[in-house]
Amino acid sequence: MCGRFDLHSPPRRWAALLGASLDARLDTCVAPSYNVAPGRTVLIAVARDSGGDDGGGDSRDGGDGSSGGAVDLEAAVWGVPAPWPDRRRPTMLFNARVETLATKAPFRYLLADGRCLVAADGFYEWRPDPGSKRRQPFYFCRADGQPLLFAGLRTPPAAQAAGRPAIQFAGRPATRPAGARAVQRAGAPTAEPTEMSGTGAGAIPTASAAGGTATPTGRRAPGTACTVVTSAANEDVASIHHRMPAVLDVDSARRWLGVDEPEHRPPRGTIPDLAELVAPAGTLVARPVTVLVNDPRHDGPELLADPPAPPLQVPPTLFG
Fold this sequence. Notes:
It contains four helices and 20 strands. By secondary structure, the protein is mainly beta. The relative contact order is 0.21.
């Protein structure tokens, strides 16, 4: 699974990587964070004809300073509304298992027009310490120093509702509930995220609040929601966790978006074979980091520091 990641680099880094157009407003609505948790505003890349401007004029610029491009960078809230009704605590799905994308709602409705890339500098996974309840966090990033691209799905922007109806789940629009924000599950400890059993996707409860949607940093949240696609862990991750985000190289990422061959996009309800698209073993490197990352309230470069060394065990002397 992927329940926490690092997104501290400026959006221009991904614009240059993908040759994407860049909205100048992204720097103000996507806050740099070393500890991105579900419910936060994140950076996504979409195919131009499946996204577009979200209203209020277009201030896009090409990643190389020119205008245009087949890929756009946009902001989205991490967590797609669940299709099951829960008026008291609407649930947001922040992971989608690749094995059930084509069969489970809401993801199967988003495959044709909702494929996206989720930008990250790195991500975290936790490994249990043998003989204790403690879990050691590990930080994963690319071995070549390039930024990460996760396969993802996103809901239609709210501004598209006039031109194209929102996808419906049991009578409800597939957009993030107005005013919804991520909250911790009642009674749960502040620690690493967990995956919801039986749903095929990570999930978090949310709470509604009148007066619009705001991120934890006070920035107004966008009208688009997204989820990270996960797959079985490869050799890079398997020793730490059995699941991992679907990491794509640039060429595979463009195939996932369908921007290179738009006339060959898969029919509705099907997706490119992610088994052929995911980056091979050897792409990622991992290292242990401080347990401060367990609490999403902690944020900063210090989260990537090495964990403190265990205390030295001095054997008892003969005379005590």
